[in-house]
Specification:
mainly alpha, HNH endonuclease, 112 residues, two-stranded antiparallel ribbon
Length: 112
């Protein structure tokens, strides 16, 4: 069974990935849209699903969601460590951490 540490603590000042001082958003490590799906109910407790969050700046949060499906996020990247072990995420984090507060990267996401 995948272990997820509850991270429902007070809101930090810095992004939990790039460590920049930014306005933060709440990222559910197990996407809320999948909380009722059998595979998630079998793997995680209700408390793990609702309390496992990261506080992220908007660029980090957007990059994560544009890089992975919600299913993959919940099954493969349900911890900070798992995200930071992904080369695509660490390359982005290393790049953005050198940028000034308020920097907004151009999105590579396709808009229809």
């Amino acid at each position: 069974m995948n272990q997820v540490v509850s991270q429902l603590s007070s809101k930090p000042v810095h992004c939990e990935l790039c460590e920049r001082a930014e306005t933060l958003t709440r990222h559910h490590l197990i996407p809320r849209t999948h909380h009722r799906r059998k595979i998630f109910v079998k793997r995680f407790t209700k408390q793990q699903m609702t309390n496992s969050i990261l506080w992220l700046c908007r660029p980090c949060h957007s990059h994560i969601h544009s890089s992975f499906s919600e299913r993959d996020l919940g099954l493969q990247y349900s911890s900070r460590e798992a995200l930071l072990n992904c080369q695509e995420i660490t390359e982005f984090v290393d790049w953005i951490k050198a940028k000034p507060a308020g920097f907004k990267p151009k999105s590579n996401r396709k808009r229809w």
